[in-house]
Every structure is written in C-alpha cells, then in structure tokens.
Amino acid sequence: MVDEKRTANPSGIQIATGDELSRGRYSNTMLVSHSAEEFMMDWLLSSPSGTHLVSRIVVSPGHVKRIIAALTENLNKYENRFGPCGSWKTANRPSIDEDGSFGARHDLC
Predict the structure, then answer these.
(1) What is the pLDDT of residue 85?
(2) What is the pLDDT of residues 3-36, one digit of tens each?
(3) Which of 44, 52, 56, 92 has the most crowded Cβ, counting Cβ within 10 A?
C-alpha cells in the first residue's frame, strides 16, 4: 500500500491501514446471514438512489459472540455517559423459514 499508515486505537494496538480505509464507512442498514460455519454481515447504505453494499464481514460463530459482548459493553458505557439511545426496528422481511433465504434486515437508528 502506498498510503499505508500505522494508527493507534484505544486498546493501544498498532494497526496498519491505508488512508482510504482509515476514514471509515457509513452504514445505516445491516443484513446478517449465516451457515453452520460462519456469519456474514453486510453493512449497507440505504439512500434515495438505492441500497449499496458498504462492507461485507465474514466471521466464525465464536467471533460473533465476542463481537456481541464487545458491542454490549461499549453500548452500556455509551448510555452511562450520554443517556439511552434509540432502539432499532426490524423491517418486515421474510425469514429463512418462509422463503428459504437466510438473513434478517435491521434498519439502524
């Protein structure tokens, strides 16, 4: 990578990243699907021009549990500091049992 940088995150771990990636991506919708071996999280941007894939992350079921634990801990810290945040709502989408597809869409507040 030509523009590779090393940045420190709050945990003190040095992470090598390019300039474009270090800016992050905005997502307001998420689609989660899974198989027996992995979970796939699609981070989407719903906009007037349509829904666009921002990023796809594939992880093991064990890592999903660690992600949930880390998000829960950080959400609790956030709410203790800034007060309760809004909740998410599940869009009316067919489930895996109804049409054979996998995934549930969550519109993020």
Answers:
(1) 86
(2) 555 555 667 888 888 888 888 899 999 999 999 9
(3) 44
Answer yes or no: is pLDDT of 84 > 70.
Answer: yes
Measured CA distances, 92 to 75, 80, 105, 106 (Å): 25, 31, 8, 10
- Kindly report the backbone phi and psi dihedral angles of residue 83, in degrees, each rounded to the nearest multiple of 5, phi listed first: 95, 170
Max distance between CA atoms of the chain, in angstroms, equals 48
Q: Which residues of 78-89 are buried (b: 16+ CB within 10 A; e: fewer)?
A: eeeeeeeeeeee
How far does CA 95 lie from the centroid of its chain?
Answer: 20
Q: How far is CA 11 from CA 7, 14, 15, 24, 77, in A?
A: 11, 9, 11, 18, 15
What pTM was estimated for this model as a whole?
0.66
What spatial distance separates the first Cα and last Cα of the chain, rounded to whole Å?
Answer: 35
